[in-house]
Amino acid sequence: MADEILSEIEQEINGNKVLIYMKGTPVFPQCGFSAATIEIFRELGQPFETVDVLASPEKRDAIKRYSAWPTIPQVYVDGKFVGGCDIIHELHERGELKQIIDQAFA
User: Fold this and answer.
1) Based on the number of CB atoms within 10 Å of its own CB, is 63 exposed (0-12), middle (13-18) or buried (19 or more)?
2) Residue 43: what pLDDT?
3) Which domains does the chain have, with CATH numbers?
């Protein structure tokens, strides 16, 4: 079962330019960190996909193991882990996140 979930996570990450593992949905985020991350990505104006980890406790645990990162949300761009809410916020403040996202869609 764990291998199946990790395989599913890998497919999700590799199948999307920008993927955010979050608590809740973009319309109804279930934590402030997820809400803040979605707000930043909406400002950037590029498409992104999300996965609600609250819908699958197994996936919630597995994504933490996959990335070796203990918290949610987790942002992946072009198959690479970029960071959680604090890192995304810092990159956005410095203008670096827009460059990373724009490059992914170039």
Assistant:
1) buried
2) 96
3) 2-104 (3.40.30.10)
